[in-house]
Design goal:
By secondary structure, this protein is mainly α. It is built from 5 helices and no strands.
Length: about 110
């Protein structure tokens, strides 16, 4: 049983590092390759079964992983060249909130 867990964790590490390396070589954001690599390693090929590997801790592991991705994205964000984003962000904050409230009200 412990050998299966070790193999699954090794597969996750190898696939993740490989996707990161390939993304770096192709000069694309790593998330663009990590997501399809995870899908291929999990549901498509069946190499890794997250429910079996993590059990009840799966939700916590996913939450920590999402937090790490957001933290990494925030630390590598460059705001110097984002002069044209003010209008888009203003639209998201104003119109987006109104549309979300209206859609939520209708759904409720």
């Amino acid at each position: 049983m412990h050998d299966g867990i070790a193999v699954a964790i090794a597969v996750i590490a190898v696939v993740g590092v490989g996707a990161q390396w390939l993304a770096s070589a192709l000069r694309v954001p790593s998330v663009l390759l990590l997501l399809p690599a995870g899908v291929l390693a999990g549901p498509v090929s069946g190499l890794v079964d997250p429910d079996e590997l993590f059990g009840d801790a799966l939700f916590a592991v996913v939450a920590v992983a999402v937090g790490l991705v957001l933290f990494e994205g925030g630390t590598s964000l460059r705001l110097a060249g984002s002069g044209g984003l003010r209008r888009a962000v203003s639209g998201l904050v104003t119109v987006g909130v109104v549309v979300t409230l209206a859609a939520g009200g209708v759904a409720a």
